[in-house]
Amino acid sequence: MKKISEPIVFFGSGPVAAKALELLQASFEIEAVVTKPKPEHHKEAFPVLEIAEKYSLPVQTARTKNELNELFVSQRLTSRLAVLIDYGIIVSQEIIDYFPLGIVNSHFSILPEWRGADPITFAILSGQQQTGVSLMLLVEAMDEGPLLAYGECDLPEDITTPELSDQLITLSHALLENEIPLYVRGEVKAVPQTITKRDVCYSRKLTKQDGILDFSKPAVQLEREIRAFIDWPKSRTTIAGRDVIITGAHVMPSNAAKAIPGGVELIKETNAIQIVTSNGTLCIDTLKPAGKREMTAAQFIAGYGSQL
Fold first, then answer.
1. What's the rounded Cα separation, in Å, for the pair 303 and 249?
2. Distance CA 131, CA 196 (A)
3. In the chain, ranges of CATH 3.40.50.170 domains
4. Residues 9-32: what's their mean pLDDT?
5. Cis before 112? omega within 30
6. What's the rounded Cα separation, in Å, for the pair 275 and 285?
7. What residues are paired with 82 via a beta bridge?
């Protein structure tokens, strides 16, 4: 496939950025990849660096906003445009202005809905039925830039964050392939985010504490958390005296109106583990005890049922 003639600089650091970069390098001439450096004692893979090395793409690294500014003082890049996906460092107006056509941020929500650090996870947590991708011209204010385009994506009731991420990466790439050439030729103009008729709301960075299941919440909300947090921070609790990660569950009505939230019940006839919540019952489908492989509720009961 012939590549789009307009060269770009790519900004990105996370796993979503790595998958997006692999798609982009097949369609665009990438003059440089700007990412975070791999920490000295980091043993796990650094996906963006691996993709850049795989395709022999030039790499520049910066840890902070100030380092990024210093980096571009010495740069002699020719690209008029940059693309930013899952970067994680604030970009100053100085860097935005470095590129005559600006920086296009592919943000994984329909802006102004879910501005902020983790729009994919919060789309699942909210229970909404649709999300999407917005191509926004970057400004210093958080996710407030005008839009070049946006695309929509339906959310099945059982979708997880990794599954939704993959769908949105594919949608993002299709939008970038189509809209960047039009923008470069002046055939697309940026418009205010109000065009989407979405309400302004904000996501945030998750913490490990978010993964602790709180059974004072409704079962519906906890089931969403399990799907949303399946990669990280993971949904954790204790069953039969064992620390476990819940990887799959479904919701049923509560059997007892006066049951105490957090109470665990074993249904021997169906090999089911049910946990009472403030509203409804959380039925565990699959779980992973600490130090063990993932297993079904029936397998867990066979191993630890006597302790329930």
1. 19
2. 11
3. 4-196
4. 96
5. yes
6. 12
7. 9, 103
| Res 258 pLDDT > 80 | no
Name the residue among 42, 53, 48 with its Cα closest to residue 21. Answer: 48
3-state secondary structure of 70: helix
Residue 256 is predicted with a pLDDT of 61
Domain 4-196 has CATH 3.90.1170.50: no
- For the segment 255-276, the average pLDDT, to the nearest whole number, is 81
Q: Cα–Cα distance between 91 and 81 in angstroms, integer?
A: 14
Instruction: Reduce the DSSP state of residue 126 to 3 states and report it.
Output: helix
Going by the DSSP 8-state scheme, the letter that residue 52 receives in this structure is H
pLDDT digits (tens, 9 = 90+) for 99-150: 999 999 999 999 999 999 999 999 999 999 999 999 999 999 999 999 999 9
Looking at residues 207-225, what average pLDDT do you find? 97
3-class secondary structure, 125: helix
Boundaries of CATH 3.10.25.10 in the chain?
208-307
* Confidence check: pLDDT of 81 > 70: yes
Fold for 208-307, please state it. Methionyl-tRNA Fmet Formyltransferase; Chain A, domain 2 (3.10.25)
Instruction: Tell me the pLDDT band of 308, cut-offs 50, 70 and 90.
Output: low
In this prediction, residue 267 has a pLDDT band, given cuts at 50, 70 and 90, of confident
> CA–CA separation, 208 vs 229, rounded Å?
10
Long-range contacts of 191-196 (CB under 8 A, 24+ apart): 191/146, 191/147, 192/146, 192/147, 193/111, 193/112, 193/134, 193/136, 193/144, 193/146, 193/147, 194/112, 195/147, 196/110, 196/111, 196/112, 196/113, 196/134, 196/147, 196/150
Q: Where are the alpha helices (DSSP H) in the chain?
A: 15-27, 47-54, 65-73, 93-98, 119-126, 161-184, 219-228, 297-304
Q: How far apart are the C-alpha atoms of 233 and 245, rounded to whole Å? A: 10
Mean pLDDT of the chain: 94
Res 270: pLDDT: 78
Residue 249 zone, left/alpha/beta (φ > 0; ψ -120 to 50; rest): beta
State the DSSP code for 240.
Answer: T
